[in-house]
Specification:
By secondary structure, this protein is mainly alpha-helical. It has helices at residues 5-51, 67-70.
Length: 84
């Protein structure tokens, strides 16, 4: 009588390796898609921040302070446009 227990454990090992390979491929693929979406969002953010279009500007400039509040005050530096 032959003992086939070793052969079936090898087959199970191959199945586990195949499943692990598929999981790795899916994770890498989803990671690439996610990175591409973040890059698109970052590009859109940077384009809007540098376009000078007030409607597309995600961070509007603060309103001008009244003259009585500006007397003797040091000039306030504007923050640069945000980048990703």
């Amino acid at each position: 009588m032959r003992d086939d227990r070793g052969a079936s454990s090898v087959e199970y090992g191959l199945i586990v390796v195949a499943i692990a390979a598929v999981v790795v491929m899916v994770v890498v693929s989803v990671g690439n898609l996610t990175r591409q979406q973040y890059e698109k969002a970052c590009d859109a953010w940077n384009a809007a921040a540098h376009s000078g279009d007030a409607a597309a500007d995600p961070v509007p400039d603060p309103p001008e302070a009244p003259a009585f509040a500006r007397r003797g005050a040091a000039p306030v530096a504007q923050d640069p446009a945000p980048t990703c």
